[in-house]
Amino acid sequence: MLSLMRQATQALRRPLLARANSSYAVDFTGKTAVVTGGTKGIGRATVLKLAQLGANVKALGRSGLEQFADVPNVEGVYCDLGNTSEATEILNGLGDIDLLVNNAGITYLAPLETHDIAEFEKVMTVNVTGSLVAGQAAARSMLARQAKGAIVNVSSQASTVGLPDHTAYCVSKGAMDQLTRMMAVELGPRGIRVNSVNPTVVLTDMGKAAWSDEAKAAPMLARIPLRRFAEEEDVVDAIVYLLSERAGMVHGAILPVDGGFWAA
Ligand SMILES: NC(=O)c1ccc[n+]([C@@H]2O[C@H](COP(=O)([O-])OP(=O)(O)OC[C@H]3O[C@@H](n4cnc5c(N)ncnc54)[C@H](OP(=O)(O)O)[C@@H]3O)[C@@H](O)[C@H]2O)c1
């Protein structure tokens, strides 16, 4: 008798459950994604995840492009964002773009008073101008096809705080956040979503160069409430979410992936 009542109650509940999304799966089949700085670190992990989720991916970079020769759905494309005019030509020639991840980035560490201006300008060219140029190419492709595209800029926790020796990097990431807002304001009305992820330290090649010294890493870790640095996958998961239809109403967001660094 009791089990009959339980079955009847469950049958009544089922229509309510059916109103929820039947699947939370993300599927990028039929989409073309471009990932700048797709050859290493966060960018490479993003390339592989997007390909696994069905996208055709163009992984841009200057080195190690041959690693994708046997990877289904991935094409390595040479593109040096330090050379703006050449990069513009390459980006404009990529064809249809549905998803863009502006991930390529470099850093340069030196005290403010000896910060080399040529190095400062190189960081700004790759991190900021490179993201704008790639964003323009993607926007033009999406607008020409009236495609509902999505763009994610990979910024940093460093965009809103000053970190010793990181002048070029912090300035470039602050500018990237403003670029995200500008892209969101101008492209949103025409169906293109733009957001940013702002990770804490990830021990990629770049992360190791800046944070592998324990004496430097310990105070940074102490400022992160979750008491760990991010893994590449932490950042990739946030990028995938923001690119996907699951984030259909998320636009112009500057999303920390920082274990609470900004909250502390
Ligand atoms: N690691 C961290 O702690 C951390 C934290 C927050 C945010 N981020 C951001 O995350 C992004 C990825 O960083 P990562 O840690 O994965 O760095 P990474 O391992 O050093 O990889 C950087 C990528 O950028 C590409 N790149 C560098 N210079 C380039 C240029 N002139 N033209 C085109 N591509 C260029 C590199 O490719 P090639 O060498 O093949 O050109 C590489 O694929 C960056 O925007 C970075 O600022 C990193």
Compose a concise summary of this entry.
The chain is of the alpha/beta class and 264 residues long. It is 44% helix and 13% strand.
Describe this structure in words.
By secondary structure, the protein is an alpha/beta fold. It has one domain: Rossmann fold, CATH 3.40.50.720. The protein has eight helices and seven strands; from the N terminus they run H-E-H-E-E-H-E-H-E-H-E-H-H-H-E. It has helices spanning 2-19, 41-52, 84-92, 117-145, 167-187, 205-211, 214-222, 232-243; strands at 32-35, 56-61, 74-78, 99-102, 150-154, 193-199, 254-257. A seven-stranded parallel beta sheet has the order 3-2-1-4-5-6-7, sandwiched between helices. The longest helix has 29 residues, at 117-145. It is globular, with a radius of gyration of 21 Å. The N and C termini lie far apart (55 Å). The chain binds NADP nicotinamide-adenine-dinucleotide phosphate. NADP nicotinamide-adenine-dinucleotide phosphate binds at residues 36-37, 39-43, 61-64, 79-82, 103-106, 126, 154, 156, 199, 201-202, 204-207.
Strands ordered across the widest β-sheet: 3-2-1-4-5-6-7
Name the shape in a single word.
globular
Unreliable runs: none
- Please give the oligomerization state of what you see: single chain
Helix- and strand-based class?
alpha/beta
Helix-residue proportion: 40-55%
**Ligands (ions, cofactors included):** NADP nicotinamide-adenine-dinucleotide phosphate
Order of helices and strands: HEHEEHEHEHEHHHE
Domain Ketoreductase: 31-214
Subunit structure: Homotetramer.
Keywords: NADP, Oxidoreductase
Family: Belongs to the short-chain dehydrogenases/reductases (SDR) family.
